[in-house]
């Protein structure tokens, strides 16, 4: 069986702002995209018979978006995996310029920095949690890391419409550039001496989460303002998406209790 991720061109051949065609699937995800950014959708495909179709037809007509029941309009890998009653094709997905994110830093800013996270499922879940926690942007590497794919978009369930994603070339430079703008950079590290609730959230903050197996690179850890650990009883570490959720909502908790 062909992996759907193989149907997208390799990240190394794309420039930072080159459009990336993207399909979003599922009732919730398509509804969120149509509600938040209908101008990004250029086609809706309705599959089979489903109670939600009447709603999507009405939304498509309201926004002047073409819709069809012709499943041949879906890419081959989606025709083989008709797991959803509705699909939306985005005219283009553009990564945000990193400068556009760090130039708008304010006291309540929360950023996430992913250090060579590989699994699209993890990125999708992180995006969904980030949208819920009010993250202003996620930074992912241009090379040797996961990128935004149909799998990511499906798992994120509409979060891509709320959380900008930027790609960086050098993690060390990114950390230094954020620090120059007053952002407190905190890395998750299982060997840190401070627990996760010791992170300092009373300022603009960027949380750094590492590769699923290797964690945050040592050079990046040395540059961070603070490292924190999530205590484990039997295992070495949590899934990176679970770690992101714990740290993000610790930031939210601290800010809610001190507001």
């Amino acid at each position: 069986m062909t992996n759907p991720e193989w149907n997208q061109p390799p990240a190394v051949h794309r420039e930072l702002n080159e459009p990336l065609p993207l399909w979003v699937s599922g009732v919730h995800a398509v509804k969120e995209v149509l509600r938040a950014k209908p101008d990004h959708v250029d086609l809706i495909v309705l599959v089979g018979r489903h109670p939600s179709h009447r709603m999507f037809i009405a939304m498509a007509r309201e926004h002047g978006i073409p819709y069809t029941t012709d499943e041949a309009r879906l890419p081959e890998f989606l025709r083989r995996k008709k797991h959803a009653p509705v699909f939306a094709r985005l005219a283009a997905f553009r990564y945000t310029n990193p400068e556009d994110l760090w130039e708008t830093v304010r006291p309540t800013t929360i950023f996430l920095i992913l250090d060579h996270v590989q699994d699209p499922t993890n990125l999708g879940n992180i995006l969904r949690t980030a949208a819920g926690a009010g993250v202003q942007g996620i930074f992912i590497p241009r090379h040797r890391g996961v990128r935004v794919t149909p799998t990511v978009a499906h798992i994120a369930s509409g979060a891509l419409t709320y959380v900008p994603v930027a790609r960086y070339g050098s993690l060390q430079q990114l950390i230094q550039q954020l620090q120059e703008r007053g952002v407190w950079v905190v890395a998750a590290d299982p060997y840190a001496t401070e627990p996760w609730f010791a992170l300092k959230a009373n300022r603009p903050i960027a949380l750094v989460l590492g590769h699923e197996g290797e964690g945050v690179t040592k050079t990046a850890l040395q540059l961070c303002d603070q490292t924190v650990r999530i205590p484990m009883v039997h295992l070495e570490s949590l899934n990176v998406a679970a770690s992101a959720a714990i740290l993000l909502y610790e930031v939210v908790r601290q800010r809610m209790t001190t507001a």
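Residues 27 and 52 are 7 Å apart (CA to CA). The two ends are 52 Å apart (CA to CA).
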